[in-house]
């Protein structure tokens, strides 16, 4: 073997070594992104677990777990359903993100980024549709509120939700206090034996800041009097009008919340896609 052949062979070996080191020095999964992704999702995983636990605790307090037919008997909206749905989605996404990052599992990471992207698309679509079809959205919210007025006494969580909404917004009913005629306990029909007949819930009453005890009977018989006298005792503005007045005043807050949520979602998608790219590069170089 000549000297030139030996030199060529040594050059080929050196080239192979350089290629070998090049492939593995640059193709690796970033520990920074990996543990950022894990930390990002562990919070949501724990939050999802907490939401699910709170939801089942609320159902156990209401006896739903011992009698599941109570879920189907409720004609209004059960807030516990909202807590459980949010908790379940958050738990699944947090689990997929945590395990996908730690185990460098491409399938779980793609599932995570795909679902987050789909949720973001739904949020954006809902915001655009709500802006374009404001009249239909207003009518849907009005019908939704009236349906829950009918079921006010059927579920304690729904009752607390409506009371909080009316107290915070200083409103009563969807359009006016007469909407409470839809509820069997508050309607003014002559055959109604309820003591709350022709009244409104206490959350409709104008409260005195000096009162230390809530007067739950303040709305009794108020709608038996003439309409002009209502304003001194209860709120006469409907909650739909209160909502329409609240949105323009708090537009920047609503927009800020939407932007923060969107940025968090974008960060999650970015971390997941970056990890997927790193893992695919390592696998490509390995094979």
TrEMBL record:
One Pfam family cited in the UniProt record for this chain: Tetraspanin
SUPFAM superfamilies: Tetraspanin (SSF48652)
Entry keywords, A to Z: Membrane, Transmembrane, Transmembrane helix
CDD domains: TM4SF9_like_LEL
Compartments in which it is found: Membrane
Membrane topology annotation: Multi-pass membrane protein
Subcellular location, principal: membrane
Membrane-spanning segments: 42-60, 80-102, 109-133, 251-272
Family assignment from sequence similarity: Belongs to the tetraspanin (TM4SF) family.
Official protein name in the record: Tetraspanin
Organism of this sequence: Cirrhinus molitorella
């Amino acid at each position: 073997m000549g000297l030139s052949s030996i030199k060529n062979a040594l050059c080929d070996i050196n080239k192979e070594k350089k290629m070998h080191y090049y492939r593995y020095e640059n193709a690796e999964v970033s520990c920074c992104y990996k543990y950022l992704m894990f930390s990002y999702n562990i919070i949501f995983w724990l939050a999802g677990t907490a939401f699910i636990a709170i939801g089942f605790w609320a159902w156990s307090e209401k006896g739903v777990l011992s009698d599941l037919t109570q879920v189907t008997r409720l004609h209004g909206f059960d807030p516990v359903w909202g807590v459980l749905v949010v908790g379940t989605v958050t738990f699944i996404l947090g689990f997929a993100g945590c395990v996908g990052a730690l185990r460098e599992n491409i399938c779980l990471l793609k599932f995570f980024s795909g679902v987050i992207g789909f949720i973001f698309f739904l949020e954006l679509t809902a915001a655009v549709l709500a802006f374009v079809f404001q009249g239909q959205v207003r009518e849907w919210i009005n019908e939704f509120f009236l349906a829950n007025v009918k079921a006010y006494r059927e579920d304690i969580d729904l009752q607390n939700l409506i009371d909080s909404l009316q107290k915070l917004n200083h409103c009563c009913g969807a359009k006016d206090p007469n909407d409470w005629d839809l509820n069997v306990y508050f309607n003014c029909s002559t055959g109604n034996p309820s003591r709350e007949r022709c009244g409104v819930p206490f959350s409709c009453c104008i409260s005195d800041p000096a009162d230390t005890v809530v007067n739950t009977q303040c709305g009794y018989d108020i709608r038996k009097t003439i309409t002009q006298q209502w304003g001194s005792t209860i709120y006469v503005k409907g909650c739909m009008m209160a909502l329409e007045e609240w949105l323009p005043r708090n537009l920047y807050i609503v927009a800020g919340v939407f932007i923060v949520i969107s940025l968090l979602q974008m960060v999650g998608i970015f971390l997941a896609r970056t990890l997927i790219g790193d893992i695919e590069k390592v696998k490509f170089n390995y094979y």
